[in-house]
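User: Second chain of the day. Same drill as before.
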Amino acid sequence: MEGSVQPGSVVVGVDTSTSSMTALDWAITFARETHSPMHLIHGFSHDHPDLFFNMGTGPEKLRAGGERVLTHAKNRTEVRDSEIRVTTSHVDGYPAAALVRASRHASIVVVGAHGDSMLRLSSLGETAHQVAAHSKAPVAVIRPDSDSEYGRISVGVDRSDHSRKALAWAFTRAEQTGRELFVLHAWQPNDAKDPNLGVADWETYTAQARAEIEESVAGQKALHPSVKVLTEIDEGNPIRRLIEQSNSSDLIVIGARGRGGFEGLNLGRVAGEVLAHANSPVVVMH
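Assistant: Same format as last time:
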């Protein structure tokens, strides 16, 4: 049964995977630090290909197993912080659809990079990818080994609306956690006729980009004066630079899409590649 989501909840997709449990623990910490309720969702569709690996497993056993998953996740949450209010939903259907519906009321949606699917053919699971693309709230994608502490949050910026949202969210999170903030704008012109470059050369583009980004950073710094900020403008591949930063950051924050692409695009190439290959948790802003 799909329960109601309290506004401002930290919504978490849970299953039996190690990635899911790491995501749950990350969400518990986030909920504690932001004084938010949590809503746990487990879903399983009976026409999912994984059923071919579980011949003879009927709907009743699947539902009973799902209830055990939710009970375990709720108990785990209450043991770690008994003051967090926890509600649950057991959905008969694809979990991504339920998580996207719940995102309308969520402060953030948290999912593991891979669920308990046996069809792990890519570096990012289908549920994580679908939720990151279609959520109405920020989405945190967590990997099973995302437990290092570097004292730094890194945010990728590119002067788009999504980027400004990512910068504001990253400043807020850095202030909440006492971490420093690394602001990175990396851009690699295709050639001299790159429309983003226009009639400017690299030096002129860098000066313009730095002026705009520093103005945005200054605005956020005024709202969050305690946050230590480092800013870098780099002529390089943004995907490679952000993935490199994930090796020394507790969190990467990016917009769901940049200034390129086409109208209606929900998840851009940079966001998709960083989600798939970053070694730290990644938050995607819509």
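The chain is about 40% helix and 20% strand.

User: Great, on to the next one.
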